[in-house]
Amino acid sequence: MERRHILTALTGWLAAAGLPATSALAAAPFPLKKTEAQWRAIVSPQAYNVLFEHGTERSGSSPLDREKRAGTFVCAACNLPLFDAAQKFDSGTGWPSFWQALPNALGTSTDFKLILPRTEYHCSRCGGHQGHVFDDGPKPSGKRYCNNGVALAFVPKGEPLPALRT
After folding, report:
1. What residues act catalytically?
2. pLDDT (tens digit, 9 = 90+) per residue, 21-56?
3. What is the C-alpha to C-alpha distance for residues 20 and 39, in angstroms, rounded to an integer?
4. How far is it, in rounded angstroms, from Cα 53 to Cα 137?
5. What is the pLDDT of residues 55-73, one digit of tens each?
6. How many whole angstroms separate alpha carbon 151 and alpha carbon 39?
7. Hey, is 7 helix, strand or coil?
8. What are the b/e assignments for 22-44, b being 16+ CB within 10 Å?
9. Can you say whether the dihedral through the CA atoms of 121, 129, 109, 65 is positive or negative?
């Protein structure tokens, strides 16, 4: 069994059990700061759990995993563009996966929640947890940014990107 399938099963189990799959992000300076109440007024309860409590949505639950149109994936909290749809691929994990992020869109930290260290990534603007990056993706990068769909919004090509939240 491949590592990604083992992690997918384990993370899915944790999500089904209502447990977060990642550790809390270390305190870091992010340009956009809001209170818990302000973020809760902007995003859904599920998105808040993933973005700011480091939860994980159930594998296969996001329609964005099946999104195939050209466009841009933005942070569901602050609207920062994170991924171009041209870098999306089907990883078979049940979560939207990308082989490359947009420049300066993401920050990383080390997560030990599943005992073995993993690289967590988050929105560089608001700090919202997006997912984890692995070294088992396709060429040319070899990376797999495994993203929680609820932490993203999709903007089809030709439509204006939403204004960044302030």
Report:
1. 146
2. 333 334 457 899 999 999 999 999 999 999 999 999
3. 19
4. 26
5. 999 999 999 999 999 999 9
6. 13
7. helix
8. bbebeeeebebebeeeebeebbe
9. negative
Domain ranges across the chain: 3-23+32-156
| CA-based nearest residue to 93, from 127, 56, 47, 119 | 56
Please name the amino acid found at residue 88. Answer: K
**CB-based burial, 46-81: b 16+ in 10 Å, e otherwise:** bbbbbbbebbbbbbebbebbebeeebbbbbbbbbbb
How many whole angstroms from its chain centre is CA 71? 17
Question: What class has domain 3-23+32-156?
Answer: mainly beta
Q: Which two tokens stand for residue 6?
A: 């083992």
Sheet bearing 129-134, strands edge to edge: 88-89, 97-98, 144-147, 129-134, 118-123, 106-111
The model's pTM: 0.81
In 3D space, the residue among 145, 159, 123 whose CA is nearest the CA of residue 43 turns out to be 123
Contact 143/100 with Cβ under 8 angstroms? yes
